[in-house]
Amino acid sequence: MAQAEAHIEGQQHPIGIYFKIWGLLFVLSTFSYLVDYYNFEGYLRWSLILIFMLLKAGLIIAVFMHMMWERVALMCAILLPPVFIGVFIFLMTHEAGYTFSTRGLFFALGS
Amino acid sequence: MSDASTGAAVARPEGLKGVVADWSSDQRAFKGVPWGKAMMWIFLVSDTFIFSIFLLSYMTVRMSTTVAWPNPSEVFALSFGGEPIPLILIAIMTFILISSSGTMAMAVRFGYLRDRKTSALLMLATAAFGASFVSMQAFEWTKLIEEGVRPWFNPMGAAQFGSTFFMITGFHGLHVSIGVIFLIIIARKTWRGDYEKQRAGFFTSRKGNYEAVEIMGLYWHFVDLVWVFIFAFFYLW
Predict the structure, then answer these.
(1) What domain range is A47 assigned to?
(2) Which residues of A fall within a CB distance of 8 Å from B49?
(3) Interchain pair A95, B95: CB under 8 A
(4) Structural domain for B158, as ranges
(5) What span, in angstroms and rounded, lies between the C-alpha atoms of B149 and B141?
(6) C-alpha count within 13 angstroms, C-beta hemisphere, residue A103
(7) Per-residue pLDDT reduced to its tens digit, B80-100
């Protein structure tokens, strides 16, 4: 149980991995800035933004916050609940679409 | 991991079997995780929900408004004597916050290595990065307020742009500011050697140890993590 013993001593990892992740985050941030700089439009823009965002978030959680070295029990308790935000996103996109359509109708009828 | 009665190392199952074993152990569920760290993680989950609700309300008002949404690329452009560069200040703020996360991660490492001075200096560097981030945000707010943007009004288009901008970046900026204050406190404690001398804390009067640096790190990385989402959804979308 080398992994569990490492927890008792605290999270100690070679310093190189932090420099590598730092560099990767810089590269990914530059990429997402370039998406805006070169004015990509439509689905290409949105998918690139989401990919770079999720990669950055994953690297920060996994390495900087040491989640990849934790036991699966903690990973589940912390990372699973936010998944349900997806349900909320689904609900609110439909609600917003409905509001938009009724507003459109209201302004078209002029009263 | 050690047995309570014998002190001998007990092997625990890994993976999903480990989840079942940990949760059904009739003891604490998070093996090898200090309670302070588990509590910080749970606080961060709740904070995740608060920021999600802010971003979700932003998504809802942006999707449902019939007035044109201002182009963030132009709104946040800045010119240094020449052509305005789109979104440049926000990009610089992003790089600053990532750098502060890098120094924080190393501060945690040097804390556990008992290298007090290096750890404290790295935390002070993190605090300096954080303070410069907040200053740039204050500059950004001043610029937008001078252009007439208000939480209830926006001369460039949809009024909801002003509301969500001040709410989301304001709440994030508050998190950064609180983080800077606590970084300075923890750096001072580390520098002074509080965690080695078992000095009682100023607030809880409990003795601390270097887990405090890691817990501080978790909070700081979370602030960086939230910025990743704000940057993507508010500034780039």
Answers:
(1) 2-71
(2) 82, 85
(3) no
(4) 34-236
(5) 9
(6) 12
(7) 877 888 888 999 999 999 999
In a shared domain, residues A15 and A56? yes
* Residue B120 shares a structural domain with residue B229: yes
Mean pLDDT score across all residues of chain B? 90
Q: What is the CATH number of the domain that holds B201?
A: 1.20.120.80
As given in the structure block, the two tokens for residue B190 are 């580390």
Do A23 and A47 lie in one domain? The reply is yes
In tens, the pLDDT along B114-134 reads 999 999 999 999 999 999 999
Cβ-defined contact of B41 to A18 (cutoff 8 Å): no
- Chain A residues with CB under 8 Å of B16 CB are 72
Q: Which two tokens stand for residue B53?
A: 């609700």
Residue A36's Cβ-side half-sphere holds a number of Cα atoms within 13 Å equal to 27
Residues of B in contact with A27 (CB under 8 A): none
Size of interface A-B (CB pairs under 8 A): 177
Task: Read off the tokens for B128.
Answer: 């300096």
- DSSP lists the bridge partners of residue B200 as B207
C-alpha–C-alpha distance, residues A65 and A81, integer Å: 17
CA–CA distances in Å: residue B110 to residues A24, A46, B179, B191: 22, 39, 19, 12
Q: Is the ipTM of this complex over 0.85?
A: yes
Euclidean distance between CA atoms A38 and A27, whole angstroms: 16
Helix (H, G, I), strand (E, B) or coil at B86: coil
